[in-house]
Amino acid sequence: MKAHLDSFVLALRYLLKWSLVSLLIAVLAGSASALFLFSLDAATAYRERQPWIIWLLPLAGFAVGWVYLRWGREVEAGNNLLIDEIHDPKQVVPLRMAPLVLGGTVISHLFGASVGREGTAVQLGGSLADQLTNVAKLGPGERRILLMAGISAGFASVFGTPLAGAIFGLEVLVIGRMRYDAIFPCMAAAILADQVGLAWGVHHTHYAVAAVPPITAWSIAAIVAAGVAFGLAGMVFARATHALSGFMKRHVAYAPLRPLIGGAVVAVAVWAVGTQRYVGLGIPVIVEAFAHPLPIWDALGKLAFTVASLGTGFKGGEVTPLFYIGATLGNALAPLLELPFPLLAGVGFVAVFAGAANTPLASTVMALELFGPAIGPYAALGCVVAYLCSGHAGIYKAQRGAKPPFSAGRDPRRDADR
């Protein structure tokens, strides 16, 4: 009886401690995400009113690259730095990560780079949360949980998906494994951070999947086929971005010149195609994917512009461009697979992300939160197939890999237990 009582008291202490810490993380991350989203809206609105500003993108890229070279070398790894610190805790993430990535991302969007927002929100949440390490006198094990909760809070508050944000913080670290010792802090921080964002007046885009057809043998086969395409799209995106980044680092020694070159390429490409449809977040095009048929060129265009932007060093995230690529690709595949295009746009929205980030569970839960429970079976199947077909070539290099479900052995270079 005493053992049960002691266990209960320890559980209460754990819940109380991490409730307080999670609340602090939520206030910091949710407020930072709100500031970021408001700044992003203002930057996007200005760029759309002044489309000529994209010709300044090379100079903007050079300026941000120079600032990172001068003051941000320790935090330039971004999300990968946070993941590395969770695996092998060494030192508190410098606080300057937060203002640098916020300013760099807003500038990227202001001048027309094709980048997202998840990376910025995750870095804001993780870096701000890590400042509590010394204040709360946390050890290495507890610091891991703190960082995971910060990642969850940032992801949840920027997309308005608290459950997906919590699972993302648990799932993104190791391919195929989750850490349950952090499940309460991640859940609490994500849910509270989303509420903090809403309290600041943040509004998230609504995507409507009007009708979900009944499950049939054909619909299952069609979703599996689409999932293969989504997984390949995620793999191409991740590998192309890493390949271009590596190429630029090998051949352009001075870091600020890389986004200058990339910015020039993007600006000229926008002039050549005659539209800014493929730069910025691309939220209006994503909304279109749920409303009427779109050509396959939208998915290919966004992929090319985003690889050119991220691969040459512009700051931002990968996830919203992946949503764009997935939604437009699903829309274009719908007539071939004889499925409603809103349904396949919704599945593609989350499945390409699942394949590129190796997070099928978080992606499935995101579909439930964004599109409703009816899409659940289709989204789950599409995300899992995309994850299996992506080759685990993820967008996060620091992500470690457990044994793939179809592998005969373990790759010691990506052993999650080291």
From TrEMBL:
Record-linked Pfam families: Voltage_CLC (PF00654)
Species name: Pseudoduganella albidiflava
Highest taxon listed in the record's lineage: Bacteria
UniProt subcellular location: Membrane
InterPro entries per record: Cl-channel_core, ClC, ClC-type_chloride_channel
Keyword Transmembrane: yes
Membrane topology type: Multi-pass membrane protein
Record-level GO cellular component terms: membrane
Main location: membrane
Keywords for the protein's UniProt record, in alphabetical order: Membrane, Transmembrane, Transmembrane helix
Protein name: Chloride/fluoride channel protein
Residue ranges of the TM segments: 20-40, 52-69, 145-170, 182-203, 215-240, 252-274, 375-396
GO molecular function, one term: chloride transmembrane transporter activity
